[in-house]
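Run folding on both entries below.
>entry_1
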Amino acid sequence: MQSNILLNTYIEHTILKPDATIAEVEQVCNEALKFQFAGVCVPSYFLETPVELLQDAGIDIVTVVGFPYGYNSLLSKFEEAEDAINRGADHIDMVINIAAVKNNDWDTVENEIDTINRLVKRENKIFKLIAETGLMSEVELELICKIANDLKIDYLKTSTGINGPGADEETIVTLRELLHPSIKIKASGGIRTKDVAIALINAGASRIGASKSVEMMG
């Protein structure tokens, strides 16, 4: 158990609500600067704001692709990821095709992850797969982790925070057992307190995605 965790260095300060305003995104960026969070996660529409405000601050600029349901076409996700990278995103957090998983269409699942992972790696950026763990069966999660291992993705992220349960310690422990040690885990979804965040880090998470980040620092 780590007791001397510098929590700010794990947090990706997040605003992904559909009615977000530029003023709120600016506030998130300023809070990230104040607390020196590891990153900010914003919708791609707002990328110009963190690119401008966080220039040379050492704070990762993160955005989402296929958010929040993941059943967009591969072409749509590819263009979304490519555009986000061209506009300054450092990390691409892509929602897995949940519908394909639930219909046992593993060829589509694997091809999509492989394609977007290759695109992101080619641009020397970081790829995170949002597995929406709260909706997945034990077998589905095992197969997702096998694909992640085979394709050597950078991170597996638990949740969008919108569909089903978010991150919990048991899930993080399970993922850490299933994933290759080189693949990091981002815990996200419903993380509202410092104690919960630290517990998830101790369970194996390398990043925490949260909108209640400032409250956690209190």
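>entry_2
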Amino acid sequence: MFATWNGYRIAAVFLLGLYLMGCSPSGVEVVGEVDEKQYQLAKRYQGEGRTEDALSAFLRVIDARRDAPESHLEAGYIYLRTMKDPVRSIYHFERYLQFKPQSPQAPQVRQLIETAQKEFARQLPAQPYQGDLDRIDLMELVKLMKDENEKLKRDLMTTQSRVKQLESVIGEASMRRSTTSGNGQSQTSAPSSVERVQRPSPTQPIPTVVDPTTVPRTYVVQSGDSLSTISRRFYGTPSRWIDIYQANRDRLSSENALKVGQTIRIP
């Protein structure tokens, strides 16, 4: 009887130990996703109306965990409803379904994916793909649109640089004329050699200012890197990881396929 009682006590202590280790014999998952500090912080931000901060916190949970279905679901909602970014929302909804294909929310999430696909098609000029969504390569179309947008941004920055250059030249010329006039010299005197060099000739084209954003950038993957951390390094936010992934589709089989020492493009 005494030996049996000791056996029960040993079994109880063993089960208690497993419980304290997160109900897993290996102790791999100690804290559930919804108990993560970043997840709870994200939910608090949502309640305060700080949507972008909430999204960043959900993405940090996704970046830190092997599986984070609830964070994928919340990120999908934010991208679809607030950010008006149906493509990113589709990605996160599909990731949720990979982790929880049989969950009670799964049918609703599949409907949200269809809604996001229709919203993306509606945003296209003249709605050329209505009724034919199954044949749209969403990611390729988005990449083309983003490339065009980036080109327009670079052209705008180049134009602004030229305007600033002209304003600087005109300002320096005006200061020289004011100085010459104050010394009692004629305002119509010949320009100095420095002024002749700096003032662009009306018959000569303005030299093109090289925009540093047009120079292709690469990055060598370090230990501990992920697409989110690399996005934060170059853009100040983890949410542009998908842009980096799209720019390296020929090098990455998935968003988690980074290898230490691998060179990737930074768009």
